[in-house]
Amino acid sequence: ESPTDVHSPGKMAPPWTAEEAASDAVSKKMLIEYMQTNCDQAFLTAERLQGQPASVQKRVTKADMVDAYKKTLGSEPAPLPPPGAGAALPKPPKGSSTPPASSAFTFSAPNSGGSPSPFGAPNPFGGSPAQPAPASSFQFNFGGKADGEEAISTETMGKGGKGGDDDDDDDDDYDDDEDMSLALQKRLQRLNMSASQRRDATMGELTPVVRQRIEKLEKLQESCDVLQTEFDQKMEALRAEYDLKKAPLFKSRFQIVTGQGGEDADGVPGFWLQVFQNNMILAEEVQKADEDVLKYLTDIKSSTKLSGDKKGFQLAFCFSPNPYFEDEILTKTYLLDPEDEDECLQKSIGHDINWKEGKNVTVKVVQKKQKKKGKVRTVKVEEPTDSFFNFFDPPDVPEEEDEMEEEEMEQLQEQLESDYELGSLFKDKIIPKAVSWFTGMAISPDEDYDDDDDDDDDEDDEDDDDDMLK
């Protein structure tokens, strides 16, 4: 089956082989950059490559991107020549290009010490982010002529063949291809620069008059940044002020739920369990074995006051005495990158739950046969199983980035993002509006569904339609 032309007219041909695209030398960002620049919208939509590059990187794996890229191999990006005419070969890009380094994690491991958490539980924060790994070296290799191949002059070549006359339209297409290739190389080189290097490179391309104007704009930006910092500080102070005002209300909620403060001794049995079950995301996390444990959950608190003025927040899950574990409070802490203006997760810290004998719901006991000295015996072993309480055991981050393959790092990043989204859900939606989740008032039919789920549902619907037609 011949390949389908997925390129937009006049775009550059695929710069890598399938093997090169799958290697660590070509990053996901480079593949997205090429395909979004050179492939038509129908192809991008079919392969789920449309949208901002950062969003595409999150929802599409490197393997899927490579598969999509392979579909571009062998298809001609330029319009087909007239019948009987030889195809014009594009000029090889001049120079070489260095791609950006693959996305690097800069997680900082906590120190063993630390001041108490805002909820009275240990708060083991500290340490500094690790330095990112150096960028890998890579050059585009477009190759020379093969042994025995007749040399063709690209300076005199036209649509008519190796020695034909050039038409004006051919020259324009030829120059457009070269300009497109050089522009792509330039963008890739800029991505591999530091912010200051990109700024200097941009300023160096400007005339003195325009450069002075840009410098004036930078002064205006600095003034705006000062005002934004002042705004953020006042917002943080205002948030802290109203958190204090809300605290007595949350305390009263706790007393009513648990039957304290003169209320009925039974309170509201299973309050938080029903809150979890009425939220679609949390309901998927809660397993059957978790339900009896969560009936002992009496309160959930959050705080942004971390030791050492660290950026982030901590959750505290309060439990009444129960037959499952010894702890009264289970904590989960999220440390954010203090240098990043956005909420960029640096590390999440869980809680080592002190499970009582035979009550650990995060493992299941299975029987396995062992051979020893010619005899077979049956032993019971524990294996991990799905549980909400795995929330308190976040993924481990290696000390060195080189210890992980790119696919493993992508998988780790997805796990950490999901973990952070779950923590933010508790902080921003569940804790402030717990009773609305209990009654179902907070449930929205359109809420919490992402694009991936919609795509999966569409595929399932198509399969069902096919089955009905059969």
Automatic annotation (TrEMBL):
It comes from the Eukaryota. The keyword Nucleus applies. GO terms for biological process: nucleosome assembly. GO terms for cellular component: nucleus. Keywords: Coiled coil, Nucleus, Phosphoprotein. Residues 210-237 form a coiled coil. Residues 96-115 have a biased composition (Polar residues). The keyword Nucleus applies. InterPro entries: FKBP3_BTHB (IPR041200), NAP-like_sf (IPR037231), NAP_family (IPR002164). Residues 1-20, 71-177, 388-415, 442-470 are annotated as: Disordered. Residues 165-177, 396-415, 445-470 have a biased composition (Acidic residues). Its main location: nucleus. Residues 15-75 form the FKBP3 basic tilted helix bundle domain. Transmembrane segments: none annotated. It is found in: Nucleus. Belongs to the nucleosome assembly protein (NAP) family. This is FKBP3 basic tilted helix bundle domain-containing protein. It comes from Haptolina ericina.
